[in-house]
């Protein structure tokens, strides 16, 4: 293992101090410690054991290097080596080093202020946070550089600009910042600020995953699972999703639950699927909420409970998930789990239709054509039939031809 590889495992920069190395070593050791994986699958236990060993090796290597470097400085300026007063003064106070430390401290403080502003649950202030991210970035903090890129990418705190986003994110990624690596992978995956390139996306997600970042593990697992052209065994995708899910990543918990639901890469297990979905749903993951509602409705892996099914379906619909809004509309239209209410059905069909969900566009058109829950409006019905047909909805296309 090289020093660069060791720093990547502990997510450290080249100038990390001994204290920073020890802190990172403790953090990563706790993440992969065998005691934290009791009861997990055999694959995950084995993977955690291997990662734990790599973390310990990286720590020994970096701490040894730090000790060696300190020893070299001590031997060069040991008391046995006579020095003139001017030499002693130069050793005691190096303006460039003091300036560097000052900039590091100022950058770190700016980054902390920015993160505090965006982590305010009641009222996050992205505009002020962006100013602090920029300040820290200009002072050389590469994590802040990644955040600047993310703000440009999503238009949070500043105007959306894919080109500026890509440049900032790429700089951070090349400096070894895991957050930058996973963001750069997303840029290559979706062609944001650069040409889409699946192989480059995988390369950067792999770096972030190797550093232990759950988002990197998630994206790499998803691509391995769904992109057959990559030719990666499903078992590798499952391991990565398990890693991310174990860290509490809602998207990974959802994907892994679907694997257990369908028996992809693992034995079909509705109970395990429901456990994973409940974890993600409890944290507000809309797709998990919708899927959990489906499982309660059918009694798969959980006792059948229509009221719980409606509770989770309503939460997913309120989150803006079009599929959930459509299913809630059907529940109101059919009186399943709720009192039959045609107006409420039309309301939810319209929300999902505006969200681009073709089934709801077709259903809303039918309501408008038949006067179900809303006054008849043939012209508006035709509009929604056309919208659904343009998305390949065959029944909508047939209704258009017949009108």
How would you sum up this structure, described in words?
The protein is mainly alpha-helical and 403 residues long. It has a domain at 341-403: Serine Threonine Protein Phosphatase 5, Tetratricopeptide repeat (Alpha Horseshoe). Helix content is 73%, strand content 0%. It is built from 21 helices and no strands. It has helices spanning 3-9, 18-32, 42-76, 85-92, 95-118, 126-138, 142-154, 162-174, 178-190, 198-210, 214-226, 234-246, 250-262, 270-282, 286-298, 306-318, 322-334, 342-354, 358-370, 378-390, 394-402. Helix 10 packs across helix 11 (214-226) and helix 17 (322-334) runs antiparallel to helix 18 (342-354). It starts with a helix and ends with a helix.
Which bin fits the share of residues in helices? over 70%
CATH-defined superfamily of the domain at 341-403: Tetratricopeptide repeat domain
Q: What number is the mean pLDDT? A: 85
Number of helices: 21
CATH class of the domain at 341-403: Mainly Alpha
CATH fold-level topology of the domain at 341-403: Serine Threonine Protein Phosphatase 5, Tetratricopeptide repeat
Order of helices and strands: HHHHHHHHHHHHHHHHHHHHH
Throw out a few tags for this protein.
403 residues, Serine Threonine Protein Phosphatase 5, Tetratricopeptide repeat, globular
Question: What's this model, at a glance?
Answer:
With 403 residues, the chain is mainly alpha-helical. It is 73% helix and 0% strand. It has a domain at 341-403: Serine Threonine Protein Phosphatase 5, Tetratricopeptide repeat, CATH 1.25.40.10.
């Amino acid at each position: 293992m090289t020093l660069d590889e060791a720093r990547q495992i502990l997510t450290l920069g080249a100038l990390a101090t001994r204290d920073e190395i020890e802190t990172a070593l403790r953090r990563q050791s706790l993440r992969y410690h065998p005691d934290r994986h009791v009861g997990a699958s055999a694959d995950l236990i084995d993977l955690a054991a291997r990662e734990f060993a790599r973390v310990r090796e990286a720590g020994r290597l970096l701490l040894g290097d730090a000790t060696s470097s300190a020893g070299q400085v001590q031997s060069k300026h040991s008391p046995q080596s006579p020095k003139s007063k001017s030499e002693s003064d130069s050793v005691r106070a190096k303006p460039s080093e003091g300036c560097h430390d000052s900039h590091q401290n100022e950058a770190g403080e700016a980054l902390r202020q920015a993160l505090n502003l965006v982590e305010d649950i009641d009222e996050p202030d992205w505009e002020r946070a962006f100013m602090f991210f920029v300040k820290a970035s200009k002072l050389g903090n590469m994590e802040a550089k990644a955040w600047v890129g993310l703000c440009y990418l999503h238009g949070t705190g500043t105007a959306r600009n894919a080109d500026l986003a890509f440049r900032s994110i790429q700089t951070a990624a090349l400096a070894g910042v895991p957050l930058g690596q996973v963001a750069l992978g997303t840029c290559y995956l979706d062609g944001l600020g650069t040409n889409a390139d699946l192989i480059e996306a995988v390369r950067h997600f792999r770096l972030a995953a190797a550093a232990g970042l759950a988002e990197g593990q998630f994206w790499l697992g998803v691509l391995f699972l769904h992109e057959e052209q990559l030719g990666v065994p499903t078992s590798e995708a499952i391991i990565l999703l398990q890693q991310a899910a174990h860290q509490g990543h809602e998207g990974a918990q959802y994907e892994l639950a679907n694997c257990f639901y369908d028996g992809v890469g693992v034995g079909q297990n509705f109970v395990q699927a429901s456990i994973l979905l409940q974890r993600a749903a409890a944290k507000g993951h809309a797709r998990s909420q919708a899927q959990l509602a489906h499982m309660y409705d059918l009694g798969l892996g959980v006792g059948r409970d229509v009221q719980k099914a409606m509770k989770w379906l309503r939460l997913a619909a309120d989150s803006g998930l079009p599929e959930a809004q459509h299913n809630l509309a059907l529940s109101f239209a059919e009186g399943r789990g709720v009192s039959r209410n045609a107006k409420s059905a039309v309301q939810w069909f319209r929300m999902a239709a505006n969200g681009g969900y073709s089934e709801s566009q077709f259903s809303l058109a039918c309501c408008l054509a038949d006067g179900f829950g809303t006054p008849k409006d043939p012209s508006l019905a035709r509009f929604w039939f056309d919208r659904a047909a343009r998305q390949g909805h065959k029944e909508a296309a047939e209704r258009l031809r017949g009108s």
